[in-house]
Specification:
- By secondary structure, the chain is an alpha+beta fold.
- It is built from ten helices and 20 strands.
- The protein has four domains: 35 residues; 106 residues, Immunoglobulin-like; 42 residues, no CATH class; 219 residues, Rossmann fold, CATH 3.40.50.
- The chain has a six-stranded mixed sheet with strand order 15-14-13-18-19-20, sandwiched between helices. Strands 1-2-6-4 form a four-stranded antiparallel sheet, with no helix packed on it. A four-stranded antiparallel sheet has the order 5-3-8-9, with no helix packed on it.
- This is DUF58 domain-containing protein.
- It comes from Halorubrum saccharovorum.
- It holds the Pfam family DUF58.
Length: 443
């Protein structure tokens, strides 16, 4: 363009043609304009709002991404939001072109279709051009935003221990049911509909068929809320540990309620919480309300856990207690010592005192210390059938993380060798898949 401008000016002067001088001037201005304007230096920030934060499978997720101009005016801004790799946009568009004044904002609204798994947003890409469009500057705006869509839990692996009320848990006892169990010699008074008439017609022998009896299970979802269990794979996840603990307990409880079992709730740590096993719509609401509001399930880790983690030490097993709004605090006779601390054994004794003879426990614990393994074995040794659901919160990026993962693997082996079923729930795996993959599930 500069060469064309010089050539037009030269011919215009030699030929004394004003029109060529004008063409050369315009071409020169066009060639010089990009060099006279400043190169864009964008200073941008991004924030993202996701609703709902924990969607169900197939639910629409509304995303609102706002880019703010913290610097000078930008004449031409092109924005492409970094949507999760495995999700498709079902409404709106994650793209926008606009101009931004200093302090101006550009908002993008679109919808995603949720699928099971944890979905992280990729950095948003911003392309800024100068007024002439000849200079482009590209920026990536990272934001550590993600959401988790959890598939429905198909089944909770319960043990054979059950009450004598009819229900969906198949036992090894013969009686009324659907699944065949055995054939017994006919006894006077046996129901006529259980007589094996084919065998009688073939052999003349009168026998009765027995089926596996289906019983109703009484299950207590027990949450390990000790300071040692407030751990996460990354320290940059604020309050994720407490929220995840509540969510896991709620999803396991919902799966049990859906199977028509009688479900209770227990928690131990800074406080003790006990909700006896019941069924019914009112009890389901009471279950979730206690899980969300009881002080035993606090979101923030206790100061003892923060201090121990900061100093590299261990977390004490004696915890300060107090009466909560639900009346679940321990009495003065259950307090060990003059410092107002309560041992974990005392809290477990309080919980076990509320169990029926056929109640079994689903213990949710990350197995971050040997005490968690001992607690599961203590329940099992006391005659209570235990199933451990253990979310894996270890990381392998550091030597300490690899050591923690190895120690946790040893605790899993100890529990399995003791005959206790363990659901090893990896961070990249859905709870339903982890439940399905459990080996040696009891019947």
């Amino acid at each position: 363009m500069a060469a064309v401008a010089l050539l037009a000016v030269a011919i215009g002067l030699l030929a004394k043609r004003p029109s060529l001088l004008l063409v050369g001037a315009l071409a020169g201005a066009y060639a010089a304009y990009p060099r006279l304007t400043a190169i864009p230096d964008p200073d941008l920030s991004i924030r993202r709002e996701i609703d709902p934060a924990s969607p169900a499978d197939g639910e629409r997720v509304s995303v609102r991404t706002t880019v703010t101009n913290e610097g000078d005016a930008l004449a031409d801004v092109r924005i492409v939001d970094g949507t999760p790799a495995m999700l498709s946009v079902s409404g709106g568009s994650p793209r926008r072109a606009t101009a931004l004044l200093p302090g101006g904002e550009a908002t993008i609204r679109y919808e995603l279709r949720a699928r099971p798994g944890r979905h992280a947003f990729r950095p948003a890409t911003v392309l800024c051009r100068d007024a002439s469009g000849s200079v482009e500057v590209e920026r990536s705006l990272p934001a550590a935003d993600s959401f988790e869509c959890e598939a429905a839990v198909p089944d909770v692996p319960l043990r054979g221990q059950s009450s004598h009320h009819p229900g969906p848990l198949v036992t090894d006892e013969g009686g009324e049911g659907i699944e065949f169990h055995s054939v017994e010699t006919y006894q006077r008074g046996d129901p006529a509909n259980r007589i094996d008439w084919r065998r009688y017609a073939r052999t003349g022998e009168l026998t009765s068929m027995e089926f596996r009896t289906e019983r109703l299970a009484e299950v207590v979802v027990c949450v390990d809320a000790r300071p040692a269990s407030y751990r996460a794979a990354a320290a940059t996840e604020p309050q994720v540990r407490g929220r995840a603990r509540r969510r896991r307990g709620g999803r396991v409880g919902d799966a049990l309620f859906d199977a028509n079992h009688r479900v209770g709730l227990a928690g131990f740590g800074r406080h003790v919480c006990v909700l006896p096993a019941r069924s019914g719509r009112d009890h389901v609401s009471r279950f979730h309300r206690r899980l969300a509001t009881d002080p035993a399930f606090e979101l923030d880790p206790p100061e003892t856990a923060r201090t121990a983690e900061r100093d590299g030490g261990t977390v004490p097993s004696r915890l300060v207690t107090g009466d909560g709004p639900n009346g679940d605090g321990l009495g003065d006779d259950e307090v060990d010592g003059a410092d107002g601390a309560v041992s974990v054994d005392t809290q477990l004794s309080r919980i076990r005192a509320e169990f029926g003879s056929n109640t079994q426990v689903v213990l949710i614990t990350p197995l971050c210390d040997d005490e968690a393994s001992r607690i599961a074995q203590r329940f099992e040794g006391g005659g209570t059938a235990v199933t451990v659901v253990s979310p894996d919160v270890t990381a392998a990026e550091t030597a300490g993380g690899r050591l923690a993962r190895l120690e946790r693997a040893n605790r899993l082996s100890v529990l399995r060798n003791a005959g206790i079923p363990v659901v090893d729930w990896a961070s990249t795996q859905s709870l339903g898949a982890a439940m399905t993959a459990i080996e040696g599930r009891g019947r």
